[in-house]
From TrEMBL:
Protein name: Ornithine cyclodeaminase family protein
Coiled coil: none
PANTHER family for this protein: KETIMINE REDUCTASE MU-CRYSTALLIN
Highest taxon above the source species: Bacteria
Native species: Nocardioides conyzicola
One Pfam family cited in the UniProt record for this chain: OCD_Mu_crystall
Position of the signal peptide: none
SUPFAM superfamilies linked: NAD(P)-binding Rossmann-fold domains
Amino acid sequence: MTTSGDGLWLRFVSGPDIDALGLTPADIVAAASEVVAAHGRGETVFEPRTHLEPDNDGRGHFNVLRGHVSTLGDHGVSGIKVVGDFVSNYEVGLPSELALLTLYDPWTGVPRAILDATLITEARTGAMTAVGARHLARPDAKVLGHIGARGTAHSNIVMLDAMFDLDEIRVTSRRPESREAFAEQLRAELSTPVVVTESAAETIDGADIAVEATRLREPASLITGDLLAPGSLLVPYGTISALDPDLLDVVDKVVVDDWREAQAGSFGALRPHLRSGALTRGTLHAELGEVVTGARPGRENDQERILFWHRGLSILDVAVGHLILERAEAADLGTMVRFR
């Protein structure tokens, strides 16, 4: 936001503006890692997401995320993101997740910026997967299995491939055409061999890191305990659970991004396990911020099976959005819009 004699102005940063900034996966992972540590130190104000489910024959819903990061800028940055989750958008040539982020001065309440948060949502999701894997996966992980080919899948794989010396990336999704196209995209960008598989079981069986980003319409036991190799890390974050009800019986540690967020709402990979009492605050190992700051241990041996469930924190959106805003201001990118 800038002030002048003719009013208050804020910066609108569009998707093409963000593309022009040339942010790297390393930039996004660094921003995510810093804000996860800040969360672990209690330097954020965080509210669990809320949902708006319009009367649209079950086509999708909106998530509203709110957060504040005290360590950004001179006296912190507050933000609110609204992101749609519309599974069948591919039928009309649109991403399933489209989002807007607004950033505010926490001392005055004055809006600072409006940003296309579609890429932010994709990138910060991949970055959170990568930060979790840095602390919870085996350092010598060689095989990555990824279920799902939606927008966030690309960031997951690219960021994990940059972090680990992988020998193989396995990908699958419900629609053969989507998984084949996704594999071709990855092969054009990465040197690691990419293998297309036909089922979730084939994708994660024996994988060192398994990521589940399915787009199910109802719960299904696609991931069972016998598929998880000793020493593996499982990262499930599908909206509807793809996990077997008894999966936690074979998992040594469960880590979440935020316990309050894990309990909020009606969606999420471990929602049935929370409802059944299989996952409680007592059985939870840690929040990731506790691991990043050293308050709780991460991986302690090469045999542990660890599950990291991240639902997506508003503070990551704020941190990545603030990074983009600073870069946009420095490059004078975006459109100045009069607020009042």
